[in-house]
Amino acid sequence: MGMKINRQLIHQKFGGHCAYCGREITIKQMQVDHFWPQFLSHFQPDLDKDREENLMPSCAKCNNHKHGMRPETWRKELELQISRLKKNAQFDRALRFGQLEITERPVVFYFETLERETTSGVAVRNQ
Ligand SMILES: [Zn+2]
């Protein structure tokens, strides 16, 4: 049994944006994601999975895909998407005809870009 979740507070955490992809979401569309997945508390009873820092505003697409993954596992999964797409004929054609471009950009979650801005030039993540 956890505390009652304050959806309004979570929705405003990143100004009404999904913490991960950055899409704007309404409070009704918002799903509350556990940054550290819920199952971890079975192994770490001291982990309060419902504490506010662990609750992230998420769009349905991100939340469904992240599911029970740890944040870094999910990031690796997202980074594998391009190599998987290259095996798709339509994707490959769109590349060859210049309709798509692949960037070498790493997967950075929306909330991480905000952290960077608010720490006056000090990179939060150095990877
Ligand atoms: Zn999202």
Main attributes of the structure:
37% helix; globular; binds zinc ion; 127 residues; 2 strands; mainly alpha
Give a short overview.
With 127 residues, this protein is mainly alpha-helical. The protein has a domain at 7-75 and 108-117.
Task: Note down, in words, how this protein is organized.
By secondary structure, the protein is mainly alpha-helical. It has a domain at 7-75 and 108-117. 37% of the residues lie in helices and 6% in strands. It contains 7 helices and 2 strands. It has helices at 7-11, 40-43, 60-66, 71-79, 81-85, 89-96, 110-118; strands at residues 31-34, 55-58. Strands 1-2 form a two-stranded antiparallel sheet. Residues 18, 20-21, 23, 58-59, 61-62 line the site of zinc ion (ZN).
Number of helical runs?
A: 7
Q: What topology, given as strand order, has the largest sheet?
A: 1-2
Q: Spans of 5+ residues with little confidence (pLDDT < 50)?
A: 121-127
Considering DSSP H and I runs of 4 or more, what fraction of the residues is helical?
25-40%
**Overall 3D geometry?**
globular
Query: Can you write the helix and strand succession as a string?
Result: HEHEHHHHH
Compute the average pLDDT.
86
Structural class by secondary-structure content: mainly alpha
The strand count comes to 2
Classify the beta-strand content into a percent band. 5-15%
Over the alpha carbons, how many angstroms does the gyration radius reach?
17 Å
Bound molecules: zinc ion
The separation of the N and C termini measures 37 Å
Largest sheet: 2 strands, antiparallel
